[in-house]
Amino acid sequence: MDFSNRLLLLLEVTELGSFTNVAEQKNLDRSVISKQISRLEEELGVRLLNRTTRSLSLTAAGNEMVSQAKLLRDLLNNTHRLAQNYHSEPRGILKITSSMMFGRQYVQDAISVFQKQYPDVKCELRLEDRVVDIVQEGFDIGFRIGRPKNSSLISRKIARSRLLIVASPDFIQQHGKIETIEKLESLPATIYAAPGLFIDKFTYLDENKVEQQFHLNVAYKVNDVEMVVKSAVAGNTLAVVTAQMIENEIIEGKLIPIMTHLNLEDFGTFYAVYPHRDAPIKTKLFIDVLKSIIGEDSPVWEKNIPNFEVMYSSKK
């Protein structure tokens, strides 16, 4: 490992918080990381980290070196990115992050198509439902609901994520027609819930175009979106789901959209996000491939819901 790599390693240690975390990410022994940082301190002739058995903290010199390391990382990334734009064909590694369900359903298909077209590009895909720091964790592109809070990131719209309310035929037969907010709020419902996220209320516009909310009567909460749909199919609860979560349940009559007259607000919008406006050609081409799979006007998943274009005041 040369001097510049040791400097970048110091940056990783400070960003990930410990030698152990860096070692796990790089699949190395913790002692290797410690030795490289010690070697860097020897080369510079200054102490960079204050070490205790429980924590690490930067010295004043360490803070200065980390600032230089950030500049070095940006310089190297920009140099690689600019060079890639001069390739007649994309090549190198494309690191992608996505939410679990969207990644399984569409990003994986896009990777298969993309690599057939551009075999010199190696792809890495990480699926997880947390919001990933794309710059810090070294991703070229990410797919998520909502615009990024980091204003330095570039975003490109992929598709709307529309909501619908569903229940099984047995549920409707048991409880009768569901035509009012009051009745909707009184019936048992399944919701998606995860640490820091509890989705039990939704926004709609009333007849005067004023925003209102309804609250679901939570009978079952689960941290897997597929289980939300399966629970509704089982007939014990109703559910509010995104169109992307529906496969053949409505076409096969296992679920029925209800309260379709409601003017439901979208759950959000899918965006591709990436660090630089002048992104490498491989990033731009991958987004094009994904868009061709999902569709330009309305996303392909909405075809699983007959007449969805006239439900829930879809034109927005």
Give the overall shape: elongated
What is the terminal separation in angstroms? 55 Å
Share in β-strands? 25-35%
Count of discrete alpha- or pi-helical segments spanning 4 or more residues? 9
CATH superfamily of the largest domain: Periplasmic binding protein-like II
Report the top-level CATH class of the largest domain: Alpha Beta
Task: Tell me about this structure.
The chain has helices at residues 3-16, 19-26, 30-44, 60-84, 100-117, 169-175, 181-186, 225-234, 281-294, and strands at 49-51, 56-58, 92-98, 121-127, 141-145, 154-161, 163-167, 188-194, 197-198, 201-205, 211-215, 217-222, 238-242, 256-258, 263-264, 268-274. By secondary structure, the chain is of the alpha/beta class. The chain folds into 3 domains: 3-86, Arc Repressor Mutant, subunit A (Orthogonal Bundle), CATH 1.10.10; 92-159 and 269-302, D-Maltodextrin-Binding Protein, domain 2, CATH 3.40.190.10; 163-265, Periplasmic binding protein-like II (D-Maltodextrin-Binding Protein, domain 2, 3-Layer(aba) Sandwich). Strands 7, 8, 9, 12, 13 and 14 form a 6-stranded mixed sheet that branches. Strands 4-3-5-16-6 form a 5-stranded mixed sheet, covered by helices on one side. The radius of gyration is 24 Å and the shape is elongated. This is LysR family transcriptional regulator. Keywords: DNA-binding, Transcription, Transcription regulation. InterPro entries: LysR-type_TF_proteobact-type, LysR_HTH_N, LysR_subst-bd, WH-like_DNA-bd_sf, WH_DNA-bd_sf.
